[in-house]
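Project outcomes to date are best conveyed with an example. Our students and postdoctoral researchers have been running inverse folding experiments weekly, and each run begins with a structure described purely in tokens. The record below, which covers 255 residues, was selected by the lab manager from last quarter's runs and is presented without edits.
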């Protein structure tokens, strides 16, 4: 099979169509373009999302916190807890495991998120670190639930910069290619601090966005999904910008 995410067709036929029907306790579950699940818990709603970091390299712990917490924040919900699974290859050192845990602890502390559990093991099933995080947050019933989907003719509002996470990974893994190259990221890889500042979303602003009339969905475009259909995107931070959505963009927008 091709390396990478399953296509929408594969995801539907191999996974989604084989899942059991959702109970009345779940408002929204697994689906194409659905990063978060919404579950009823008494008088509140539990919002949760999982993501793997498979190519994070030396910053896997940093990325693991932000990738899942941003999914929650994109729904206008403050993430409060996170579980982390670390699967290390046999070649890993204890120092590398400590580094990943320290990174995750540092970033979780900045976001006010508790690391409440997880799992750590060494396995010959992997040849590099795989770090999986599951974040969650709780909101009151009646809060906006972004269950809509983008359609051709809608407008795409972009904030910050596309491909923040993917650019950070590529820059750190290929820092030697950036040295002495002033036209590429000012000649050096971005710092962990600058990445974390750019990557973090604000749940409050996301909630205001969702409450505004006419907004159907919000998506965390961390690893670059707006780039293929939009040619020559600005390299630096973008203001909020209305962009016509084409049918070609839907393939990327709802993954």
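After processing, the design step wrote out the following sequence:
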């Amino acid at each position: 099979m091709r390396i990478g995410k399953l296509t929408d067709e594969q995801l539907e036929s191999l996974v989604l169509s084989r899942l059991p029907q959702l109970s009345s306790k779940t408002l929204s579950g697994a689906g194409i373009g659905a990063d978060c699940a919404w579950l009823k818990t008494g008088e509140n709603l539990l919002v949760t999302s999982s993501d793997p970091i498979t190519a994070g390299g030396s910053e896997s712990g940093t990325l693991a916190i932000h990738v899942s917490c941003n999914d929650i924040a994109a729904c206008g919900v403050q993430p409060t807890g996170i579980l982390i699974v670390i699967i290390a290859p046999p070649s890993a050192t204890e120092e590398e495991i400590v580094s990943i845990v320290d990174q995750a602890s540092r970033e979780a502390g900045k976001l006010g998120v508790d690391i409440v559990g997880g799992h750590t093991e060494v396995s010959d099933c992997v040849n590099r670190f795989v770090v999986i995080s599951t974040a969650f947050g709780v909101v009151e019933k009646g809060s906006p639930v972004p269950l809509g989907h983008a359609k051709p003719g809608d407008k795409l509002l972009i904030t910050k910069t596309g491909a923040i996470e993917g650019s950070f990974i590529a820059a750190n893994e290929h820092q030697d290619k950036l040295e002495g190259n002033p036209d590429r990221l000012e000649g050096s890889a971005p710092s962990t601090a600058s990445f974390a500042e750019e990557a973090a979303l604000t749940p409050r602003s996301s909630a205001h966005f969702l409450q505004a009339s006419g907004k159907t969905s919000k998506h965390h475009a961390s690893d670059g999904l707006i780039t293929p259909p939009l040619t020559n995107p600005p390299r630096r931070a973008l203001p909020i910008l209305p962009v016509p959505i084409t049918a070609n963009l839907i393939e990327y927008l709802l993954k």
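Residues 155-253 form one domain. The radius of gyration is 19 Å. The training component of this project remains on track.
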